[in-house]
Structure formats: structure tokens, C-alpha cells
Write a structure and sequence with these properties.
CATH architecture: 3-Layer(aba) Sandwich
Largest sheet: 5 strands, parallel
Bound molecules: adenosine monophosphate
CATH superfamily: P-loop containing nucleotide triphosphate hydrolases
Structural class: alpha/beta
Order of helices and strands: EHEHHHEHEHHHEH
Strand content: 5-15%
CATH topology: Rossmann fold
Number of domains: 1
CATH class: Alpha Beta
Number of strands: 5
Radius of gyration: 16 Å
Length: 189
């Protein structure tokens, strides 16, 4: 199964993704993690990538697609994948659809996790204290939420038109959110 997980930063995607990849036995492809790994290397590319992440802005679509495509070519992705934090723009969604179509594959489902803005900010500020992520400060959080609303939220319509969208209420306990997600997965298997 191939699915896309859409949700603003702080919605709880990370927690739910861990459970979901275990349930479905598919790899977890988080572009945030991939880009943070690139950022750690001491290269010109890493400094360029860091400039986007640290400002809370999106890295260029084709760069992200190239990193994802490399992963998708690996053996572990033959039976599917969970895309976390990707696609983040309509262009990325189109690039992913085109890439999969070229391979004779397709996405099965897009899952949107919904959480109110104020709750997101509180969760992200709390995470900043625990994890110390450079991009979890107040200004960057605001910028990332703005980017989500303007660039990523339109994806839900894109996938709704394809009949692939499922929406889950993220303002519930983690266990209840996962129960709802499992029910969505069953509808698209
Ligand atoms: P995340 O861990 O998913 O919140 O991503 C952290 C940061 O990595 C984002 O704020 C962006 O700067 C960058 N990033 C992650 N995924 C993407 C993507 N699909 N397209 C562009 N930039 C991304």
C-alpha cells in the first residue's frame, strides 16, 4: 500500500506514522528526516538545504522529488511506502503521481490529520523544549504553519478529486486517532 500522510507540523503525524508502518509493514519515508540527514553532512548542498529548513521554508520541489525517487528505487519500497511530509506542494503531488505512473504504480490513499491552530502551536513549543529542534521556535513555527496553509493544504482537494482523501480528527487521544486511521486504511485496501 502507498499512502500520503498530510498534516500541519505538530499534528502528531510522527507518532501515528510509527504505528501505521508497523501495521502495514511498509517503510516510513519522511522527507523532513531525509533533509535533516542531508543537512548534517558538511557539503555545499547541505548548507543550501539548511538555509530552507532553518527558516521554515520549503526546499525546492525537484530536489525533494529526487531524494524521494532514490529511496523508492530501493528494494524495501517494492510493497509500498508511507510518505510523511511529502508531497508538500501541488507540484510535488504531480511529480509523485507521474513518477509512480512511470513505474506502473499508484497511490492508494491520502490521509489528512486535522488539528486546531492554537493546539498546534502549544504542541510545537513543548516539542522544542524536549527535542531542541532548531526550527521549533515561535517565528519558525508561525512560518511553517503559514507554509502549510498556503502550499500544502490545497493538496487535500487534489486528492479528494481523485477519491483518495480520508480526514481524521487529530484532537483526540493517540489511541483513538489510530483507531480512526485503521478504519480509513481498511476502506482503501
Ligand atoms: P518536517 O520534519 O516534515 O516538519 O520537515 C522539516 C522541514 O524540512 C520543513 O519545514 C521544510 O523546510 C523541509 N521539508 C520537509 N519535507 C519537505 C518537502 N516535501 N518539500 C520541501 N521541504 C520539505
Amino acid at each position: 500500500m502507498r499512502l500520503v500522510f498530510i498534516g500541519p507540523p505538530g499534528a502528531g503525524k510522527g507518532t501515528q506514522c510509527k504505528r501505521l508502518v508497523e501495521l502495514l509493514n511498509i517503510p516510513h519515508l519522511s522527507t523532513g528526516e531525509m533533509l535533516r540527514a542531508v543537512k548534517k553532512q558538511e557539503t555545499a548542498l547541505s548548507r543550501w538545504v539548511a538555509s530552507y529548513i532553518d527558516a521554515g521554508r520549503l526546499a525546492p520541489d525537484h530536489v525533494v522529488m529526487r531524494i524521494v525517487a532514490q529511496k523508492l528505487q530501493s528494494e524495501e519500497c517494492v510493497n509500498g511506502a508511507l510518505f510523511d511530509g511529502f508531497p508538500r506542494t501541488l507540484i510535488q503531488a504531480q511529480l509523485l503521481d507521474d513518477y509512480l505512473a512511470d513505474q506502473g504504480l499508484k497511490l492508494d490513499m491520502a490521509l489528512e490529520l486535522k488539528v486546531e491552530e492554537e493546539e498546534l502551536i502549544q504542541r510545537l513549543l513543548k516539542r522544542a523544549q524536549i527535542d531542541g529542534r532548531v526550527d521549533d521556535n515561535y517565528d519558525t513555527i508561525r512560518e511553517r504553519l503559514h507554509v502549510f496553509h498556503t502550499q500544502t493544504a490545497p493538496l487535500t482537494e487534489y486528492y479528494a478529486k481523485q477519491g483518495k482523501l480520508e480526514v481524521v480528527n487529530g484532537m483526540q487521544s493517540a489511541d483513538q486517532v489510530f483507531e480512526d486511521i485503521k478504519a480509513c486504511v481498511e476502506r482503501h485496501r
